[in-house]
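worker-03 picked up job from queue 'complexes'. Input manifest follows; four sequence lines, order preserved.
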Amino acid sequence: MQISSRFTIALHILTAIETFKDEYRLTSEFLAGSVQVNSVIIRNILLQLKSAGMVQIPRGRASGSIVLLKKPEEINLLDVYKAIEPLEHDTLFAFHKNPNPKCPVGKNVHNILDDRLLSVQKAMEDKLKNMKLSDVLSDLSKLI
Amino acid sequence: MQISSRFTIALHILTAIETFKDEYRLTSEFLAGSVQVNSVIIRNILLQLKSAGMVQIPRGRASGSIVLLKKPEEINLLDVYKAIEPLEHDTLFAFHKNPNPKCPVGKNVHNILDDRLLSVQKAMEDKLKNMKLSDVLSDLSKLI
DNA sequence: TTTTTTGTAATGTCAATAGTTACAATAAAA
DNA sequence: TTTTATTGTAACTATTGACATTACAAAAAA
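worker-03 finished. Artifact:
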């Protein structure tokens, strides 16, 4: 199963906020125009980013002033991922629920796999942690 | 989104085949008893492992003789993962389909994220590649 | 010929993603 | 004060995938 596109949408949103903060009024409608999805999807993702303390979202006609609450160097991709992807028990790999406790393999399959699979998950998360929004922005600045 | 439990079921199956090869008749029914899922699910996963060249599955009354076609040292967890999890375009991270090409961010979001996300995926896959079925079996042998 | 087991199809349930419409609450602007 | 723009949120639909179950023809040994 793939990791949902809401994660890349969130990165797109954060990148666009920083890129256009001085040029345009930043509303969910504006961002929806860049991502090309419905503005409700943008608003829901923005709420998750707000819960993670990354953005400030004024209401009402005040808006157009969505703001990053952290510097791009202070936002890493793992923070974004965790803000967006709600993993059951924080585990990337799902497990079959009822391995047979009367079977030597069924009884121990969690013991022998959990640590290994967690270390795989950690390898991925460490890689995400070492990438910052500022890295993404500096890549972008070379292309615009 | 989590990675489906079919992956851990596949590891359970392979472990059980090697563990019980001299003690029991290995049928999908027997394996279903250890995993505690329906035998059709076992059979479908076995077919995927067969396509990957990992197991041999005799039909009819001959059965009970499902066999590993490789040594446990020659089977790594990435091979199992790839045999079981069909990723679209081989990419772990899904992407929103239509970023706006008229927007500087929308136009470049693939360019600036694809390499990064692939390297994250690769970190995970490399970790899986370095774990062998024989490692899992030796952990198990300490517990039985 | 009988029996066992596989390969496969058909069907059902459940959860998640993704999209859409609608609207009360908010808060600035007129 | 009224108007207007925008958010937060609910309700609904469609589509997909995971997981489960029943059923049975095909295979192949007993």
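worker-03 released lock.
The first strand of chain B starts at residue 55 and ends at 56.
Chain B touches chain A through 59 residues (CB under 8 Å).
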